[in-house]
Amino acid sequence: MIVDDSDYQQAGHTTFDPDTDHSLSEAVLTTVEEHQGIDLVEADFTLYDIIDPEALERLFRFNQDAATTVSFFVDGTRVSLRDVGDVVEIWAAERQP
Question: What residue stretches are annotated with the Halobacterial output domain (predicted)?
């Protein structure tokens, strides 16, 4: 799936560099928190309930030459990750009807 910018009007967007100190799953959760304006510590779910964070890390860390894109839903928010070379773009937007 190619991320169409028109799908993400008023969306949260960050980039993740795999050479940084934090993990991709932490970057995903931070993007969702900022997009929803909430503290996910109080949320009724964990990321592992939705997607395996370790598998997500491996997919984007070891597949750097591939055009990898992953989308999933977290608490009503559509999250899309796209490998764009040296970084991963993370988009968060409201679920479209």
Answer: 21-87
Phi, psi of 39 (to 5 degrees): -100, 115
Q: What is the pLDDT along the chain (97 residues), one digit of tens a residue?
A: 444 544 545 567 888 888 876 889 889 888 888 888 888 777 777 788 888 988 888 888 765 666 788 999 987 889 999 988 888 899 998 866 5
Q: How many domains does the chain contain in total?
A: 1
DSSP string, 20-46: SSS-HHHHHHHHHHHHHTS-GGG-S--
Q: How far apart are CA 47 and CA 9, in angstroms?
A: 24
Q: Which domain holds residue 54?
A: 5-94
DSSP reduced 3-state for 92: strand
